[in-house]
Amino acid sequence: MKLGYSSATAGIYKVDEAFKFAESLGLEFVELIYDYCDYLSDAQPAKRVRELKAATGIGVTLHLPFIDLNIASLIKVVRKASVEQTLEALEYARAIEASCGVLHTGHIFLYQPVPLEQAFEALYDSLSQFQAAGVPIALENLGLLVDGLVKGPEMLRHITDKFGMHNCLDVGHALIEANRPWADPLLANEDNISSYIDTLGERIIHLHLCNNNAQDDLHAPTTDGHIDFRNYSSFLNAFKGSICLEVAGGKEAVAKSVAHIRALEAVAI
């Protein structure tokens, strides 16, 4: 089990501290977010990330930029800025030798036929510009939001295949989506997680693990919420990709989740 954590979600801002904490828990990677490079410019310089990787043997994944951005925007200037920011982030991902880059698929604020069609065209144009990135791109499921453009596992799989990309499965997002009005009523609660696993299949190279109340994206420790991770112990143990604990609440919450998920390695379903 290749286990790591999101330093940003945990509230850790300095890359030295992020690696030190990962090392203390015996984790295999740290997930950084590119947005820090803009609003905390000295937090994670690429040179320092490479030095820490070499010194510790701990790898990195990168969450590509998402704050105030929308690669499917109907507004050209917004989409242009979003694409440019993502391309810069992909350069950074190459510089730090990230094993993958997690990417959000965009939003649509007018969920009507004409703007919806144009938003998908915008998304496809944006994704086409990332195909030569040189870093595996993992498209994340975001069907929990009413303004999310891509909803449900089938649509995400279609787009992933269309551009030869990969997936990040966020189990918390999948649980919440099951309780949204647009979800398949047959996929209640954890059934939607299983549907994503089955539908995305080998395209999944990265996981975001946390827990929640099936309504809000709380990023709670894996022990605290409606997801029973014992139901996925076989999947997690067999998974060859990277498993990121995207847990808020500081170091204690992350450590609690690390212990919980590692305990599942001994569970046979």
Question: What is shown here, in short?
Answer:
This protein is α/β, with parallel strands linked by helices and 269 residues long. Helices cover 42% and strands 14% of the residues.
Written account of the structure:
By secondary structure, this protein is of the alpha/beta class. The protein has a single domain (2-266), classed as Alpha-Beta Barrel (TIM Barrel), CATH 3.20.20. Helices cover 42% and strands 14% of the residues. The chain is built from eleven helices and eight strands. The protein has helices at residues 7-10, 15-25, 36-39, 46-56, 76-95, 113-128, 153-162, 171-177, 190-200, 233-238, 250-263, and strands spanning 2-6, 29-33, 59-63, 101-103, 137-140, 166-170, 204-209, 242-245. Strands 1-2-3-4-5-6-7-8 form an eight-stranded parallel barrel, surrounded by five helices. The longest helix has 20 residues, at 76-95. The two termini are 16 Å apart. The relative contact order is 0.14. The mean pLDDT is 95.
Outline the fold blueprint.
Blueprint: E1 2-6, H1 7-10, H2 15-25, E2 29-33, H3 36-39, H4 46-56, E3 59-63, H5 76-95, E4 101-103, H6 113-128, E5 137-140, H7 153-162, E6 166-170, H8 171-177, H9 190-200, E7 204-209, H10 233-238, E8 242-245, H11 250-263
Parallel strand pairs: 1-2, 1-8, 2-3, 3-4, 4-5, 5-6, 6-7, 7-8
Identify the notable features of this structure and list them briefly:
269 residues; alpha/beta; TIM Barrel; 8 strands
